[in-house]
Every structure is written in structure tokens, then in C-alpha cells.
Amino acid sequence: MNERILWIDVARGISILAMITFHFAFDLMYFGLAKSDLIYQPDWRLFERIIASSFLYIAGLSFFITHGSTINWKSFIRRYGATAICAVLISLVTFILFKTDMIRFGILHAISVSGMIGLLLLKLNTASLILLTAIIFAFNLLVQKPIEGHYFLQWLIYTTETPNSLDYRPIMPWITPFILGMASYKPFQKWGILKASRTVIHRELSILSWLGRNSLILYLLHQPILFAGFFLFLKLN
Fold first, then answer.
1. Of the residues 52, 158, 205, 217, which has the maximum number of CB atoms within 10 A of its CB?
2. Which positions ≥6 away from 159 have C-beta within 8 Å?
3. What total number of domains does the chain contain?
């Protein structure tokens, strides 16, 4: 499907705005302009999880739209290659800035690996994908964490050797919204939800759609911009 689907871009744009809001709150805390435990409050933690889940769900749905019938290797390598490179870049930058709290396996890492695993799941029908989602979710609820495991297993599940991190999204359980997004494709297609939009849209939706289409670059740039703004604000005050 070559044409953009408006509501997917809009949904991704809303997720971007929500993420910027959360990171703005983090920056307020980081620069001493808010309580030191602000983003660790239950409502903020829930907000953070909803944002991460929305990104992974939309990624899973978009993945199946592009590769559901036939794997488009050129598109896969371009998109997921770029995401993986950006994930590594995020790890390097956060190591420089935050050292031991660096992002080792955050949302971009989870999306990249979920995409690779998703290639193995394309032949599963909707019911099987939903069942797999339920199994992983139940496993996450029933298994006491952290589990005994090596440091190098932290990408898969929270282990006893997993260090602190500013953003941590191990595959178990964070692949579940990605798989659920994949499972949504056929029902959405049947209901006509996935039709590309050629109509003129309101300005607000146009802005959200633009944010969604440029989500990766905005993910990379928004924190440097926010940090620069806070540095300037504190310097002037």
C-alpha cells in the first residue's frame, strides 16, 4: 500500500505530542524545576506506558500493512535499518550524558527487534496473533521479575543483572502491542478502516499527520531542543 493512511499518521502524531509532553516533565525534574519524583508518580508512569504501547501498536499495524502480503525487503531494510541506527545513536548519546542510566534497550530498540521477529509471524492468522499476545502478556504477569539471568538477556526480559535505564522496553512483554497491531490489520481492512485518505483535512489534523510522518526525526531532535531551551531559560534567569 503506497498511499498514506491519514488516521495512522494522526495517531502517531498524537503519540509524538504525548511523548514530548512526558519528556518536558522529565526535563523539568532533571533541571530542578519540579519535584524530583514527578515522573515516578503512578499517573505519569501509566502515561509513559500508554505512550510506549501506542508507538509499538502503530508500528505493528504499519508493519503488517507494508509486509502482510509480500515482504518488501527494500522498505524493511530502509525503515528498520534507520530505526536501529537511531537506537544505537540514542544509546551512545545517553551514555555520554547519563553514564550508568544510559538507554540500553529503549523504545527504538524494541521497535527494531520487534520488526525482525515480526517477519517470522507474518504467516500467522489473526486468532493466532491474538493468542500469542495473550500468552506473552500472561507470562509477564505470572513470572516474578527480575528473573535470574545474564546481563546480555536484558533485551529479552528484566533480569537480576539488568541495570537502571532511562527507558527500558524488553521484548517480554513489550512486543505484545506490536503483535496486537499486526493482528488488527485484517479486521481493520475488512471494516474499511485502512483506506488511504485523499480528502482535504482540517489544519489540526494536517499538523498531527505531519508530526506522524516525521516521527523518527522528531524523536531524535525534540530532547536536544528542549534541553537547549531549559539551559537558555536557566542562564537568563
1. 52
2. 146, 147, 148, 149, 150, 151, 153
3. 1
